Amino acid sequence: MTPGVRPPAVSGRFYPSDPVELRATVATLLADARTTVRPPDRPAVGVIAPHAGYIYSGPTAARAFARVTIPGLVVILAPNHTGISEAKGGVSLWEAGAFRTPLGDVPVDAEMAAALLEVSRGVVGVDHDAHRAEHAVEVELPFLQMLRADVRIVPLVIGWDAWEAARALGEILARLVTATREPVLLLASSDLNHYEPSGVSESKDARALDAVQALDGAELLARCQRERISMCGRGPAAVVLAAAKALGGTRADVVDYRHSGWVSGDNARVVGYAGVVIP
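Structure (tokenized):
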């Protein structure tokens, strides 16, 4: 089946559907971010950015992206919110074509996707259905488009949170990044703890981010399970942490943290957001 173009699923809900409004929204978020974070001094290995509606998590995502130079190729790892997956190994790839947003089409790098399929030995599988209604890749794209008009992506949706699988996929990605003749950014799309009082969520988020800062994907997944931290993209984040370690990374920097109560005023049931950069 020809992959074709994946149309936007949450345009007009998570972010503006009008291209002029969307461009202005993202430009303002990035401009505000640049007043509070230092500009990038070298390419980053990885980023963790949230994927909620821009009114809630847009400032956090902008602060993460403002800290990095976006290369021509970005591998995006997202959680599977819908539960739809036909990929044998639980990692669903859209292998060619493009993802569409109101700002235009973001091409999928078919060469990198084919290489990933070849070396993953069944861990990654082509699965368009897992992507059609999933928002966690899509919400990141307007930021990438605004910062790098010719950006290409390899979009992956992950349906598990097991450490051995995360470590294996991270090491596969690290080998591919090393072999690629251009810079590659690994982007994990994730929010933090969901729908608990702000005090509880802030404590849980801090525990998750301690493990992230240490590049300890195994501990991140263990803490999320043991302490019931409902970080939706813990699996993708663990993969990026494993890859970063394999690529020689030693730390991750939290460049922004907030939760939905900052906007809504409702601190009884909040969702946390962090922007993380792995230099």
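The chain has ten helices and twelve strands. The longest helix spans residues 163-179.
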